[in-house]
Amino acid sequence: MQDENEKESLGSLAEGSLTPAEEQKIEAKVDKMLSPNEPDPEPEPEVIAVKTRAKKGSPPPIDIFADAKTAPEVPTEVLETMVEPNMDDTEAAKPGKVVGIEPAAPEAEALPGQADGGGDGDGSGDGSGGSGGDDDGKVVTEPLDDKATDQAVDDITRHESDEVLAAQDAAVAKAFQPKSPRKGRLKAFFSAWWHSRKARYITLAVVVIVLVILGFLPVTRSFALNVVGVRATAELTVLDNTTQLPLKDVQVSLGGASGTTNSEGDVTLSRVKLGSQQLVIKQVAFATVDRTVQVGMGSNDLGDIALTAVGTQYKFTVVDYVSGKPLSGARADSGASNAEGDSKGTIILTVKDPNGAALSVQVSAQGYNTATVKVAVGNKATTTVQLVPSEREVYVSKQSGTYDVYESYVDGSGKKLLLEGTGLETANELTLLSDATGNEAALISTRDNIRDSGGYLEEALTVINTNTGAATTIDHSDRIQPVSWIGEYLVYVEVRPGASAANPSRYQLMSYNYVTNERLELDHANYFNDIVSAHGAIYYATSNQYSGGVSQFNGIRPNNTGKQTLLTNDVWNIFRTDYNDFALSTATGWYTYEIGAAKPVSTPNAYNGTSRLYIDSPDAKHSAWIDTRDGKGALIIYDQASGKEATLTEQAGLTYPVSWLNNDTLIYRVSTPQETADYVISLNGGTAKKIADVTNAAGITLWYYY
Predict the structure, then answer these.
(1) Higher per-residue pLDDT: 538 or 588
(2) Which whole-number Å values give the CA distances from 219 to 234, 270, 279, 299, in the listed order?
(3) What is the CA angle 222-228-229, rounded to 5?
(4) Cis omega before residue 103 (within 30°)?
(5) Is residue 26 within a helix (H) or strand (E), and if so which, with residue range?
(6) Which residues contact 331 (CB under 8 A, 6 or more apart)?
(7) What is the per-residue pLDDT across 157-203, written as a single tens digit (0 to 9) for each?
(8) How many CB atoms lie within 10 A of CB 321?
(9) Contact, 634 vs 627, CB < 8 A?
(10) What is the pLDDT of residues 250-288, one digit of tens each?
(11) For the sheet containing 431-434, what is the strand order?
């Protein structure tokens, strides 16, 4: 059955048409033959069957592979009716001439081209294609082995075989045709490469050799790395060749990256191309630097590069307004030009001269206000510039007729009204004190027109933000007395409204945090004998004079933590004898107490001096207090590192309040019949300078009870 199907398929090929099913069958067979997983097929005899459609009266199909003969024998019945295919013109003209075997069978089927009915003796018949016999009705026979016939059969066989083979070849070629030739070839190539150990080793060796070559050739290496996007960083410092000091805002470009120098003259460039690159540095009034540098992988430190001045140079000396001492680290700017000052306050500024007659220069330093000065173009002399500290002093003044709160810089400039008086304030009930930052100030006054049950004005505690001018009233009482600013806490004592003189809780020790806007009661008593602020804590003595009162010497922090009862005795006075020690006067004798210790120590020696009021600097490295010496007030500075004291200045009328403007500068009050004014002085030297005339409002003072 399989042979018959294959013959039928090949017969279809001979006719020049293949069905899809036949194509798939051929492709499947070819794939099976080529699969490495299939065993080799057994050779089969090649048989090609050609299927023809036989017409009625035609001879049977010819199997050219069944016999070695050139052609099969023609059946006798066919020969009897066969008309001679090749006749010359004369013979063809003779009617009834037939090639065959006598006698002719009347019922033999007609050959192709004959009618169904054979001719009769007279040459006529029913079929139009028939031929008749001769006159006497005899049949003439000729030999079967005719060369022309054999040649015709051979031609037919060869033609049909060529068509079959061509159709088979086309089907096989179509089965082997790849759908994606390029993909197939690449896949085959990489498959062969992967399965070949030798090919892999050769490829790896070639890659290593190429990398080694690139590694030893800087130009090639850099080019290759740049192509794949590898970049480096570079850093350098630009200096003024004249002063060897940094230049700010200088334009620097290298290998596709660019940037500007900072105040230290430094610049760091990212994503710089590797290899030989052009470094360009530009600054107004300086010669441009244009040079080639080699950029390697990673970080490249190009060091210091000095620029040569080509413009006009101007010289300045910058000093502190208060001390008159040179300021290190000052700077000058004019347009796109700038220069840094040295440790002696000297600045050499190189500029491109303007068209006008004067050059405008801004001189600045950290912690100081910027000063603008005008210098004549071409001026060769040194210009001295005084810079004023950027912190401000807060004070009360009655210049307008009411007690107003102002702020200004210590040279008197920048005066600004912070809080306008209401007209209800009285001079003997005014207290003003600023915190260590200068950003907050506490005012105690009778400005709010709030009265107690007896009709007396109550005091108001108002906190002012000196940056915004915002004022917040946080408390009212018959009497409010400040103790100290400790960080962001204001510590004070107030009388409980409506409390009788015998009330054991009449006085309250309070703290207020201006950051959280929180009020805390630290302790209470019928009254406090004494209160001192020292080393960031509050030390106080309560009284037991009335029923329910307790006499104690205590310590506590402003955030209501760390409370300690140091002595259970009636302490009358707390004298601060020096920066680190107290002398305690009690009903039973004297005690000494080292600040921070667990307990006071009894002593037979009485203390005959006065109590000191120390005011610490913001950085806690120094502390100031005032003593009276030879009829003058003496401002004394305690150095915490050395433990030594030194007199900073003496002046008639010098008194409290004292406050720190910054870590090196203090403000103190002078009160004489001639003036009431605030003065500023520096730890670094120089003479005191007057700030402004002020109202003699109190500040932080020694405690008193009433």
Answers:
(1) 538
(2) 19, 21, 18, 19
(3) 85
(4) yes
(5) helix 20-34
(6) 248, 263, 338, 339, 340, 341, 347, 363, 364, 365
(7) 666 666 666 766 666 666 555 555 566 777 787 778 777 887 888 88
(8) 22
(9) yes
(10) 999 999 999 999 989 999 999 999 999 999 999 999 999
(11) 431-434, 440-445, 459-465, 471-477
Q: Which residues neighbour 230 within 8 Å (Cβ) at sequence distance 6 or greater?
A: 274, 297
- Which amino acid is located at 501 in the chain? A
The pair of three-digit structure tokens given for residue 614, joined into one six-digit string? 């120390």
State which H helix or E strand residue 176 sits in.
Answer: helix 147-176
Residue 234: HSE in the Cβ half-sphere, 13 Å Cα cutoff:
26
Here the tokens at position 654 are: 């010098």
Q: Please give the pLDDT value at position 346.
A: 96
The amino acid that residue 343 corresponds to is S
Rounded CA separation 481/435 (Å) = 16
State the average pLDDT for the chain: 82
Q: How confident is the model at residue 44 (pLDDT cuts 50, 70, 90)?
A: low
Residues 6+ apart with CB under 8 A from 491: 482, 483, 484, 485, 509, 510, 511, 522, 533, 538, 558
Taking residue 415's Cβ as centre, other Cβ atoms within 10 Å add up to 13
116 pLDDT more than 80: no
* Amino acid in the structure at residue 216: F
- Token readout for 704 is 């008193």
Cα separation of 697 and 164, whole Å? 128
User: Would you say 579 and 625 are in contact if contact means Cβ atoms under 8 Å apart?
Assistant: no
Residue 648 C-beta-side C-alpha neighbours within 13 Å: 29
H/E element, 5: helix 2-14
